[in-house]
């Protein structure tokens, strides 16, 4: 199948499929005129890639894990190297979540103090000329 058909069947844009190819995650053959030719297995591979990306893995990590991936879930073969990668990624996510939670709490406190001062009728500053941020 051509890249457009793979895109239609997986719901993944063609530029993303070409990116996966550039990362070594997809390996299409070349047909007449140099067009990419994908096998039926590419549909499953794209679905696996999307699931692993959704789990927060990088394309480099997925490339390392790909020989050990089976099924649409996808399922990963049991081995210490795979568990080490997954645990490292989870630890990184936990650290980022903790950092975001601290930032959220600090911002919430700033909002509370500012709202309290506004309800007192105080206007203590003139904001800069950049306008609202966000």
Automatic annotation (TrEMBL):
CDD domains: HTH_MerR-like_sg3 (cd01282)
InterPro entries per the UniProt record, alphabetical: DNA-bd_dom_put_sf (IPR009061), MerR-type_HTH_dom (IPR000551), MerR_fam (IPR047057)
Annotated PROSITE patterns: HTH_MERR_1, HTH_MERR_2
Gene3D superfamilies in the record: 1.10.1660.10
Pfam families: MerR_1 (PF13411)
Keyword Disulfide bond belongs to the record: no
GO molecular function, one term: DNA-binding transcription factor activity
Alphabetized UniProt keyword annotations: DNA-binding
The protein, known as: Mercuric resistance operon regulatory protein
